[in-house]
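Bug #2210: token dump truncated for RWD domain-containing protein?
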Amino acid sequence: MDDLSTFFGADRPDRPDLDVILSELDVLRSIYGDEAIRPWRPSEEGQPPVVNAAASSTVRYEVHLSLPSPHEDVSLGVLVSLPPTYPAESPPQMQLLSRYVGAFGVDSELFGSVLRTFVSANGVDFTPDTVCVFDGMESIMERCVKWYEDRLSAQTAGELLREDARERHTPLSHKIESPHDAEDSAETGDRSTNVPAVLPEGIEIFQAEPIIDRKSAFVGRACRISDPSQFWLI
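Reproduced locally. Full output below:
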């Protein structure tokens, strides 16, 4: 914890509660690991603007965690801001630093939810004189997991719908046959043309000579229809 205490300033008369904060950070490190808790670097590129960044007496640090299994490959960063009155009177402020959670861009709903961790009915209750960053982080993780899984489900559902639509609207494709099958087909003709019972009256299928390309044969077929409903009967 020496690097964090040095970063915060070992002698800060504006923060007489620094020992309490450092003690809480020790606990967080023991839970999340040494690399999870980092001093805040305001010059890092790609981070969103920090809310109330001008408050010089506010202590700030970052928490970087991975989502629980089975999403442990997805990570997120949270900025923790401790106002001068924390923990005696005021709760910490949590802000999502990550612009993406997995492959999904963070929207205003998730960003605002994290920002209101201690000031909303669905957030965490704050008790004066009680450190609560851990409770806030656990609440944020739960909401981020739900948000991420909801988008995974929506993505999967969308892919299934698109695949179903493609299957229902894919036009008839040319049938690929082996050279042997093509020769047999050229000699005997397509059997479907010899079964008029399955074709609408007046429909005739025309078949072109097979085109042999290496080990594949391409046979073209065409017919004229007078109504779209006949398409599904051919």
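Output looks complete on our side. The domain at 2-156 is CATH 3.10.110.10 (Ubiquitin Conjugating Enzyme). Marking as cannot-reproduce; reopen if the truncation happens again.
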